[in-house]
Amino acid sequence: MAAKEKTLEDLFLMGLKDIYYAEKQILRALPKMAKAAESDELRQAFETHREETEGQVERLEQVFELLGKRAQGKTCEAIQGIIEEGKEIMEDFADSEALDAGLLAAAQSVEHYEISRYGTLRTWAQELGMQDAAKLLEETLEEEKKTDQLLTQLAEARVNRKAAA
Ligand SMILES: [Fe+2]
Ligand SMILES: [Fe+2]
């Protein structure tokens, strides 16, 4: 297809495939991050978000259905890079006092990526007149934002604990 004939709907579908792939990768990474976490709160946060992520994958499948398309992922090199960086931290800082700080940073990179993608997709869904899809994407966007805020709180608590010690 010539680029001229491509539409916003094509771009929307491409973005959906990208985040669908990303969520599936995140679903695989979160248990490893939970296992690595030193603090109980951080482990719990990763476990809770893994459960939420399952629901997010389902919401994406609903959006594909609304579009009349098969749910399908498309390799997303951006998320691969972010997850890879997280893996390196887990390996290089295993058993170190900085491990949780590194895990928190890696997890926030993931959330920020997702927030950017879901914000865009929600707006495009609105522009395309797909209100139901926009609502589903908005729900996930709010979950990602809440997760990001929780991670910020945990990071600050960690710093404060250290300062008090
Ligand atoms: Fe997600
Ligand atoms: Fe997330």
Gist of the model:
The protein is mostly helical and about 160 residues long. It contains five helices and no strands. The protein has a single domain, classed as Ferritin, CATH 1.20.1260.
What is the topology?
Layout: H1 8-36, H2 40-67, H3 77-92, H4 99-127, H5 131-164
Helix pairs in contact: 1-2, 1-3, 1-4, 2-5, 3-4, 4-5
Bound molecules: fe (ii) ion (FE2) (2 copies).
Order of helices and strands: HHHHH
* Heteromolecules bound: fe (ii) ion
Cα distance spanning the termini: 62 Å
- Please name the CATH topology: Ferritin
**Low-confidence spans: pLDDT under 50, at least 5 residues?**
none
CATH architecture: Up-down Bundle
What is the beta-strand fraction?
A: under 5%
**Integer-rounded radius of gyration:** 17 Å
Structural class: mainly alpha
| Average of the residue pLDDT scores | 96
Within CATH, the superfamily carries the name Ferritin, core subunit, four-helix bundle
Summarize the amount of helix as a percent range.
over 70%
Integer tally of domains = 1
Number of helices: 5
Tell the overall outline. elongated
